[in-house]
């Protein structure tokens, strides 16, 4: 039985508030922009609060906090995705945004609770997965790549504007006002989802009533990882992703803290750095299509890995401000690696297995989001890297020999990350060339089922078809 009025739709006991207009990519873009804009405002305040709360172990605690958050996200993402296939995207957009932004007001109340809640919020920090599923629901196959690019560009745009604005407000009015502004943006995002976002999940893929029970395979975060070894090309691809994204995730979790506390960047410099790297990253995404046509997906991946390796080396050995700026430019150029990997999967896998392989790659990235920050935090701690003022005293006050080494290699985790990326480059070199494997199309119904029905939760069908031994 379906009961309709202007505000709600009730079907078989499931209530979904209606939105404004038909579901579209625009709704997803607004949701992702507002969430990351709120957190972007807090970039500078978080650095200050983190340093004040953990003055002796800033990088270690930053790595542990972000590591716990990433691991919890990896563990919860398949279950939340599977539930969104049953109960719809809108409800889980609301849940993920609300709980991800819930720690923000605690920043001015209790910093220990603030960082504890950031770690625990990782259980719901999977908004991107739900947004991508929402976009898949409302776009055709031909439109989807462009729509995903818009989501990524919107995320980058929010990070271009918000850190600079947050730094400016903090400089003029203090941290409290920035926290209030970030809280207001988060509340606006929640309100937008409740009022304006319509449900996107098509009725024909939504189960009747409460639907069938969620299977353990759908909720198991390691299900996709266990299937990696079933195909040699998929295995190499996932190994390359792991080796390259592990240092990238670690770097992303600490680079702004590193620039301010170790390299001596001011608040305004860090904000400008974020903005410039963000703008360059958007520009790189725009020219990605041309690179793919001229170089091919495999060689574009290798170019991206080369830039990533170079920027990690610059971060690791650089001891001057201009070196950090140069590394930032290389980081923007290296941002084309993961889109190129997604394109490689799209070009070289069968139509009925693309969602499966993409899910494996996403699972590896999710694992890196937890391990990378923890790895960087522990390495910084082992090499006694924390505050810039402490480095100035090296060799004068009888500090350990490690400090003398740090003057040569200011960022040890970045150097280790560069070595891992070199290994990723070697693995990527053995990937099959583009279009070696013929791409076979399946029926539209099967395509719809795989990409719309269980796209976030995981595969509906086995990875390996009996007649195929390659990707």
Describe this structure in words.
The chain is mostly helical and 471 residues long. The chain has 20 helices and three strands. Strands 1-2-3 form a three-stranded antiparallel sheet, with no helix packed on it. Strand 1 and strand 2 form a beta hairpin. Helix 11 runs parallel beside helix 16. Mean pLDDT is 75; it is low at 1-17, 388-402 and 436-471. It comes from Pieris brassicae (White butterfly). This is Major facilitator superfamily (MFS) profile domain-containing protein. Residues 24-435 form the Major facilitator superfamily (MFS) profile domain.
Short description:
The chain is mainly α and 471 residues long.
What descriptors fit this protein?
471 residues; mainly alpha; 20 helices; disordered N terminus; disordered C terminus
Topology:
Blueprint (H helix, E strand, L loop, with lengths): L1 E3 L3 E4 L2 E4 L7 H17 L1 H11 L4 H30 L1 H13 L9 H10 L6 H12 L2 H33 L1 H22 L19 H4 L3 H4 L5 H30 L5 H29 L1 H21 L3 H14 L2 H12 L5 H29 L5 H5 L8 H8 L3 H18 L14 H10 L18
Helix pairs in contact: 1-4, 1-6, 1-7, 1-8, 2-11, 3-4, 3-5, 3-11, 3-16, 4-6, 4-8, 6-7, 7-8, 7-12, 11-16, 11-19, 12-13, 12-14, 13-14, 13-15, 13-19
